């Protein structure tokens, strides 16, 4: 599936924006050809993350769990899922890609 997006992007970059480094994105339509599938994948991963966290919270709130460290376990499992599912990308999904040394780009 990625080949369906990467090959047309490479061809368009080669034909219309083949100057020096490919990190510059001066032509927006070419950039959005590769960025849209990435944003869709980030959105799907975010939905999966929210559903998993809801299940974890339900397990913690259940009366079957009697341990005292349940909140610590919930926090640990949630913090493990954030980089695993790429949830941190939601913050930088649309911002931080432009030129310059803005704070969001620097944080990314």
TrEMBL record:
A Pfam family matched in the record: 7tm_2
Matching PANTHER family: GASTRIC INHIBITORY POLYPEPTIDE RECEPTOR, PDF RECEPTOR-LIKE PROTEIN-RELATED
Domain G-protein coupled receptors family 2 profile residue range list: 1-108
BP-aspect Gene Ontology terms: adenylate cyclase-modulating G protein-coupled receptor signaling pathway; cell surface receptor signaling pathway
Keyword annotations: Membrane, Transmembrane, Transmembrane helix
Protein name, entry field: GIPR protein
One term of GO molecular function: G protein-coupled peptide receptor activity
Recorded topology in the membrane: Multi-pass membrane protein
GO cellular component terms attached to this protein's record: plasma membrane
Compartment(s): Membrane
Gene3D superfamilies with a match to the protein in the record: Rhodopsin 7-helix transmembrane proteins
Matching InterPro entries: GPCR_2, GPCR_2-like_7TM, GPCR_2_secretin-like
Keyword presence, Transmembrane helix: yes
Transmembrane segments: 32-53, 74-95
């Amino acid at each position: 599936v990625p080949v369906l997006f990467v090959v047309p992007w490479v061809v368009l970059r080669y034909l219309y924006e083949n100057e020096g480094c490919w990190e510059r994105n001066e032509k927006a339509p070419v950039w959005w050809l590769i960025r849209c599938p990435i944003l869709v994948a980030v959105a799907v991963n975010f939905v999966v993350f929210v559903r998993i966290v809801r299940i974890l919270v339900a397990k913690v709130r259940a009366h079957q769990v009697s341990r005292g460290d349940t909140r610590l376990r919930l926090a640990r499992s949630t913090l493990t899922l954030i980089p695993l599912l790429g949830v941190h990308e939601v913050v930088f999904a649309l911002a931080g890609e432009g030129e310059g040394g803005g704070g969001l780009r620097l944080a990314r």
